[in-house]
Amino acid sequence: MARKMGFYGIIAYILYGFAVYWYLFYFADTNLPFEYEGSRADPATFMNGRELMLTEEYSKIRNLLFFLSTPFEWLFYFLILLLGLSKAFKKWAEDTSKNKYGQTAIYMIWLSFFAFIATFPLSYISYTLSKTYNISTQTFTSWMKDELIDFWINYAMMFVIVVVLYWLINKFKRFWWLFAWLLSVPFTLFIMFLQPVVIDPLYNDFYPLKNKELETKILDLAGQANIPAQHVFEVNMAEKTNALNAYVTGIGSNSRIVLWDTTLNRLSDDQILFIMAHEMA
Length: 281
Fold this sequence. Notes:
mainly alpha, 3 domains
């Protein structure tokens, strides 16, 4: 019965994948609305025919990978339960540690490791796709380092969440879900507070913006949007990507305005202010 259900799950995922592929590559209308043709919003006004073709092609493949990835994770966890691997992880944890927190940590490391291995091919395809279309400039070693950082951050967060959920279930058997929901709000805010100063620096190096005149203009704009940022930071992304980006992150005293160096190197101050106005809104 379990094998049959697993087989049906795999077939359903394959059919879903074909349906998404068919829609994106043969059915979806990617034409620009008539009223925007020839305007500044029309890519044809600043891109040649080959660039337009490559952009559309890249977008379709990226969207396909996006819509395949989450259902693939669902299928993976479904098969983990169905094929008895979850029981095996539990047994390994119980054989290794007598402490319940230790058992939880060991169970989750096995589950996270298998999930990492299962989803690695899709992640690698996404990486090579960005390299092929000259979006990414990141070396494999650097990319793999980021993947491993992702792994440990996600593992640590999930461990905390699972431990708290188990405690709530044992303490409040009837209304544990309500307390879990109530705790999710401060937990999310806490992570948002930590991210700019603890998590993000694990991936990249951040520096105060060297262009102080531009910083003053951006902070004036931030003040109008009630964003309590005191400084603007730039981050070295040229060694990882050719893409342009700017963003606002964090909350409270850890609010940060960040510009990629690729954006600073390729856009004028007015263009950067336009992007920042969009991000702040």
